[in-house]
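Quick one, probably user error.
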């Protein structure tokens, strides 16, 4: 994974530059040991926040119960620096070209939020 991500062997990777741990698959997909299978779920922003909270209440993922929607600064670290906003498909296989929410609201109003389209 180009030295950027460490595979934790449990469906997560750790970004060695930021120290952040990430789920390899979008919610709705499942890690099968090699790739992300199934269909990613689509959420509104509030639904995404609620889904992260529900995941933790229902036992979490990979032994952790502190998952959350990332801030915009955290989410932007996933952008491959080689050009257009794309994500490392080796670290995050089968990530669809969709809008991914951040937990950060836009400075001029709490009804607008930041996200990244991979």
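Nope, works fine. Designed sequence:
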């Amino acid at each position: 994974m180009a030295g950027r991500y460490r595979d934790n062997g449990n469906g997560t990777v750790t970004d060695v530059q930021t120290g952040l741990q990430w789920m390899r698959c979008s919610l709705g997909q499942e890690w099968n040991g090699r790739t992300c299978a199934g269909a990613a779920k689509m959420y509104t922003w509030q639904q995404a926040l609620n889904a992260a909270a529900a995941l933790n209440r229902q036992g979490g993922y990979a032994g952790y119960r502190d998952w959350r929607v990332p801030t915009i600064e955290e989410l932007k670290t996933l952008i491959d620096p080689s050009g257009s906003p794309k994500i490392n498909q080796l670290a995050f296989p089968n990530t669809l070209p969709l809008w991914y929410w951040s937990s950060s609201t836009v400075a001029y109003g709490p009804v607008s939020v930041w996200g990244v389209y991979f």
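Residues 45-57 form the longest helix (13 residues).
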